[in-house]
Amino acid sequence: MSFSKEVIQQYTEKFPLLNQIIGLEEVVWFNPKIRSVTEVDATELSIYDMKDSEKLWQRFAPFLEKSFPEELKESKGIIESPLRQINQMREQLNDVFSSNIEGNLFVKCDNELSIAGSVKARGSFFEILHYAERLAIEAGLITKEDNYEKFTEQQFKDFFSQYSIGVGSTGNLGLGIGIMSAKLGFNVSVFMSADAKQWKKDLLREKGATVYEFDGDFSEAIKIGREKTLEQPNGYFVDDEDSEHLFLGYSTAAFRLKKQLDEQGVVVDKDHPLFVYLPCGVGGAPGGIMFGLKQVFGDHVHCFFVEPTEAPAVLIGLLTEEKDKVCVQDFGISNRTEADGLAVGRGSRFATMISEQLVSGVYTLEDKHLFEFLALLKDSENIFVEPSATAGFYGPKQISGTDYIAKQGLKADQITHIVWATGGSLVPEEERQALYRKGKDSLEK
């Protein structure tokens, strides 16, 4: 149910951009409250917490390698995605969308992350591994000095079977939580909103998770999921709206990206800035990645979130300064989008509190562009990503179409652009073909 006309008018008078947002127009918003990373005060988290989190990933590497040998034997249990330079895609974007993208253009291929096939592997796996470690240490089953391959033993599975884990999800977070929880032996339930894709529900059930389906959106799934999970004696709910551990899991991506940029000879400094474009749902994944990037690269990295015109939850929260106190439905916006991972009506309190001080801006795009970028990327670079994962490709065009670069005193040809591709490798082939055809049809119109 939306606000009354009078209330909406009060908001639009104070924040005129809202008129365009409510009208489902594509917009670009720059954050007037952005601070230097050294001045951020919304969280007690720091780079030291990130380093501790990276150590947890290292401890669990033997477990991950043994549990998922096909995917992780070569990397020795480390879950990471490649960073690919995409010059042909840049040419396509410049040609088809009349862009003028200068500098380097890369795609961070979290669509290729092992096991879960999306960026959610970072946060979801980390949270479950962190919880499992805590329980095992408290029970005297392991110490941090042990070889964590022991987590594959039956005694650990028997122990974890006493505990239940729940999560509310539009899709990819549920896949990550479900797959890793089931592998460890937890009883896991995933509460999925109406916009979640059927193949994701089917895959979760195949992996051993219990899936509950709801007619409502993400907010309903997470509300009911939280209630049902916490009713159980040993219930643990993974709260995408307020989880520090999810956030930290995402943040460690910055360490790996720094190494990849160094290996490719990409300099990041005052004269050679990094522009990163992050698809945004509730805000936890992009917020955590952005937090990590800011800790590693300081003010030389500029992060932009992107949301569908039908689900600009974080944008509305930041623009009105109400954060999670308002949702898109309050303003008569549907929250219905083909970008299932971004179909969120209300932003995360925890993540937006931090993002308010760090994000350079937010832009929105129409759903049709998601499919167009999907087709262009497949044709130009032979990379497949799901629709919501393509949203970042609109960023270089949209930001360069403003005076942001000039105001920052930067040179367009010295910028390294990174589009964060958030998911896609687990999409069934038949579905891939349908999504690709939809993109090609849209481009030909």
UniProtKB/TrEMBL annotation:
Coiled coil: none annotated. The keyword Lyase applies. Its cofactor is pyridoxal 5'-phosphate. The lineage of its organism: Bacteria, Bacillati, Bacillota, Bacilli, Bacillales. It catalyses: D-serine = pyruvate + NH4(+). NCBIfam families: D_Ser_am_lyase, PRK02991.1. It comes from the Bacteria. The modification N6-(pyridoxal phosphate)lysine is found at K120. Its EC number is 4.3.1.18. PANTHER family: D-SERINE DEHYDRATASE (PTHR48078:SF9), THREONINE DEHYDRATASE, MITOCHONDRIAL-RELATED (PTHR48078). GO terms for molecular function: D-serine ammonia-lyase activity; hydro-lyase activity; pyridoxal phosphate binding. Keywords: Lyase, Pyridoxal phosphate. Pfam families: PALP. This is Probable D-serine dehydratase.
